[in-house]
Amino acid sequence: MSVRERIFAGLYDRVGAGWEEKYGAQLRRELLTDARGRVLEIGVGTGLSFPQYPAVDELVGVEPSAAMLRRAQERAAAESRDVKLVQAPAEQLPFEDASFDTVVAIAVLCTVEDPGRALREIRRVLRPGGHFLFSEHVRSPDPARARWQDLLERPWGFVAGGCHPNRRTLAAIEAAGFEVGELEQGELPAMPRLVRPYVRGVAS
Questions:
Q1: DSSP letter at 21?
Q2: How far is CA 116 from CA 19, 69, 173, 174, in A?
Q3: Which CATH superfamily does the domain covering 3-203 fall into?
Q4: Hey, which of 153, 166, 171, 179 has its CA 20 to 30 A from 159?
């Protein structure tokens, strides 16, 4: 575990606390209303979503960062939430085929090394008829802002834990073979313009 990784994990909740309280918790709650059965959340980070889940049969979370995972374990204990946590990247999910009813991704496909591979893994572990719930900031439909996202991709990623602000995530979800049903597109409130455009939806 690198010093940079520990520092990022230590600052993550504090930096975003105001936004999470005012906007984030509600956005998570709205998305997770459709979570059912055995649920997998990829890239759980520090576990901010845990309090927002409805009653489900089982909640499993994966996270590649050991520093983040430790904080997620602490949050699960503080919330008395029964969560099975596994250290793993989204591109290599250590689960059997068709083993989850719901898979959740919240602001994680911007950071994975290989979004296409991660989405194929999500599809592999999702049961037939299951749902993929996603909420991701994405490349702006405005060409001028998209150019700024391209120009600032590397410096932004350095300070934001490897985040790529310019990914065409919705197109990647569809290219992985998902059928997107419910879809909301817009701009996240009170965020830097670079990462305001977002998509939120349910795919199967």
A1: I
A2: 29, 24, 8, 10
A3: Vaccinia Virus protein VP39 (3.40.50.150)
A4: 171
